[in-house]
Amino acid sequence: LRVNQEEVPENCSNIQDEEQDSDISKHRQKIAENRDQMRTNVIQEIMKTERVYIKHLKDICEGYIRQCRKHTGMFTTAQLSTIFGNIEDIYKFQRKFLKDLEKQYNKEEPHLSEIGSCFLQHVEGFAIYSEYCNNHPSACIELSKLMKQGKYRHFFEACRLLQQMIDIAIDGFLLTPVQKICKYPLQLAELLKYTTQEHSDYSNIKAAYEAMKNVACLINERKRRLESIDKIARWQVSIVDWEGPDVLARSSELIHSGELTKILKQGKSQQRTFFLFDHQL
């Protein structure tokens, strides 16, 4: 209700509506600009971390592996294979990936960059991380054995200084591929948050996020299965006078173990420990 009973000029309400529409329009424009800026930030962060990562891989291959191969008296081929795994293959793959990523990067207007297809194109290639991640615990054990000797500590430090690498120990550098493959889904999830459904890259980013999440899950699952197989092998070796075929011939996972009572024909009973594997008890 109006307090004063005077008639309000007709055009007054029109002016108010126009002002309101203008405010809404400005507000929407501001939201869009903010979202574009956030998308720019995420894209730039992805590009930056990718370039830094390539530098780390190059330093490992040229700074450490190349020097280690020159010193045959200090390292055997098997030792180097255990410590560095397939990191040279990862370096080769990531260079190709970054090259394709750079092509999709829009320098003038980063928020318009369409990088989703690049991830989808290379998704199968990321499977090589599985071998590296599974090998990583063995690499840490082998490296820690060597690091107990002063000559190896000094050697690796000399390699780092010669290559002008940042001040991180070799085990820190060797952890980067494990961290990297886990970081991709997080980066893509962040990018998806600031990509509107109308954006030409939306469907590809969404698909890439799911694909990279699956890659990370697959690597974790393979790692878990290998650990399970290793556990079964150690368990069988620990049993005195083992008879019959190896458990691993039919099974790869221990599902449950516990005490059971075995009832004999004479009504006597014996306590037994049973182990339930996939496909056998």
TrEMBL record:
Gene Ontology MF terms: guanyl-nucleotide exchange factor activity
Entry-linked Gene3D superfamilies: Dbl homology (DH) domain, Pleckstrin-homology domain (PH domain)/Phosphotyrosine-binding domain (PTB)
Keywords on record: Cytoplasm, Guanine-nucleotide releasing factor
Upper taxonomic lineage: Eukaryota, Metazoa, Chordata, Craniata, Vertebrata
UniProt source species: Thryothorus ludovicianus (Carolina wren)
Main location: cytoplasm
Domain of life: Eukaryota
Any Pfam family the entry gives: RhoGEF
Name of protein: SPT13 protein
SMART domains from the UniProt entry: RhoGEF
